[in-house]
Specification:
The protein is an alpha/beta fold. The chain has two domains: 250 residues, Aldolase class I (TIM Barrel); 74 residues, Arc Repressor Mutant, subunit A. Helices cover 39% and strands 22% of the residues. The strands form three sheets. It has a nine-stranded mixed sheet, sandwiched between helices. The chain binds S-adenosylmethionine and iron/sulfur cluster (SF4). The site of S-adenosylmethionine has 16 residues, from strand 2, strand 4 and strand 5.
């Protein structure tokens, strides 16, 4: 039933213990395309919510057949802008999920939302559908910056959305983008202090990345995107972000994610600890351990093609590859080293011999970029912003 692209090189497929099980639902539509964004998202005036709800139900049923009996720890509606989904569509997706899997009592069900009036009006209905956590795309607390980022909301609207989100949902988080055009370190420090004073229990803080194929990417390649920080200033932005967040009791539990201890996102942690998750919707990725095989799944990217295949129950909607032990080790390190807790060494040892890793990690420890305890290994605060180099040093053959 799987389209296996390549077979495992290692005959010992004993899977590592899986940490958690989640469902990711990708809604690929937005009200406008932001100039920095390379997520699989499209502007469409014509979205038939009934057909999309049906398609998601059928996909959950199809994948449920090979994952029956499992218990869901989290559901994440991402995008795109899933808050443009009808709450009834979200409700049908959750109902379909309940038919396939048990829901853990403490299940986290997150919706990414944009702070527009259309979406605010639906918050109560989304909560009624079962969503208990919202992740709000505030992006900036500065109206000029919001305009330059192509956002449709104002700072005032973002603050209102934040207040409503907190009164409606059990938990809420918001996203900001920093190291923006013409932003000084002092500007960002002031903006971040305003943000922490909004009392978030969770904050996602991303450095602006210029992605190929976006409007910003095109401008950048023509040298027409001015006022971006250089690498040194970028590092200062990162350091200042850590200082302010730590002072306000919101330490980083991952490179870009901060939380009051205990308020970390279950779904995020599932990704970073190499847990299992079903990924449905255009372009959605998943990771599933089935019969001892760790599968990487990716669904068809184009919304129209995805919809047609999902409605037909066509399993060609997915490409699936069995990950070798070496690939699993690489993935576990790439994801786990992003986090403050790092990776579990016993678990890593089931995927790759630690004797190959330790001499290299020792060198990185001496440089103050990596820490190691008896059971775990991680990147230090100084090592995390240099993670690509750290990983290259740990896994030189990749
Ligand atoms: C799936 S996206 C957006 C969800 C929602 N549609 C929104 O715009 O608020 C998740 C987050 O990624 C961040 N992001 C997207 N593109 C980025 C980029 N090029 N650089 C930095 N952060 C980015 C934004 O903070 C965004 O809220
Ligand atoms: S940042 Fe959000 S709203 Fe903007 S295009 Fe990307 S997914 Fe859509």
């Amino acid at each position: 039933m799987f389209h296996v692209k390549h077979a495992p090189a290692n005959s010992d497929l004993s899977a590592p213990p899986v940490t958690g099980f989640g469902l990711y639902v990708h809604w690929p539509f937005c009200a406008a395309k932001c100039p920095y964004c390379d997520f699989n998202s499209y502007v469409s005036a014509d979205v038939n919510q009934e057909r999309w709800a049906k398609a998601f139900e059928l996909e959950i049923e199809r994948i449920g057949r090979s994952t029956r009996g499992r218990t869901l720890d989290s559901v994440f509606f991402g995008g795109g802008t899933p808050s443009l989904m009808n709450p009834a569509t979200a409700s049908r997706i959750l109902e379909a999920a309940r038919k396939q899997w048990r829901f853990r009592n403490s299940i986290e069900i997150t919706l990414e939302a944009n702070p527009s009036s259309v979406e605010l009006a639906r918050f109560v209905d989304f909560a009624g559908a079962g969503i208990n956590r919202v992740s709000l795309g505030v992006q900036a607390l500065n109206d000029g910056a919001l305009r330059r980022l192509g956002r449709l909301h104002s700072t005032k609207m973002a603050r209102k959305a934040w207040d409503i989100a907190n009164s409606v949902f059990e938990r809420a988080s918001f996203d900001l983008i920093y190291a923006r055009q013409h932003q000084s370190l002092a500007d960002w420090s002031a903006e971040l202090r305003e943000a922490v004073q909004m009392s978030p229990s969770h904050l996602s803080l991303y450095q602006l990345t210029i992605e190929d194929g976006t409007a910003f990417g095109d401008l950048y390649s023509k040298d027409r995107l001015r006022g971006l920080p250089d690498e040194n200033l970028g590092a200062d932005f990162y350091e200042r972000t850590q200082d302010i967040c730590e002072r306000w009791g919101l330490p980083a539990y991952e490179i870009s994610n901060h939380a009051i201890p205990g308020q970390e996102s279950v779904h995020n942690n599932l990704y970073w600890s190499a847990g299992d998750y079903v990924g449905i919707g255009p372009g959605a990725h998943g990771r599933l351990t089935i019969d001892g095989h760790r599968l990487a799944t990716e669904q068809e990217r184009a919304p129209a093609g995805w919809l047609a295949k999902a409605l037909k129950g066509d399993s060609a909607i997915d490409s699936r590859a069995v990950l070798t032990q070496r690939e699993q080790a690489t993935e576990y390190l790439v994801m786990g080293m992003r986090t403050a807790d790092g990776v579990d060494l016993k678990r890593l040892n089931r995927m790759i011999s630690l004797s190959a890793i330790f001499p290299r990690s020792q060198h990185l420890e001496d440089l103050g970029l990596v820490w190691r305890s008896e059971r775990r290994m991680g990147a230090t605060r100084a090592g995390r912003p240099l993670l690509n180099q750290v990983l290259k040093a740990l896994l030189p053959d990749n």
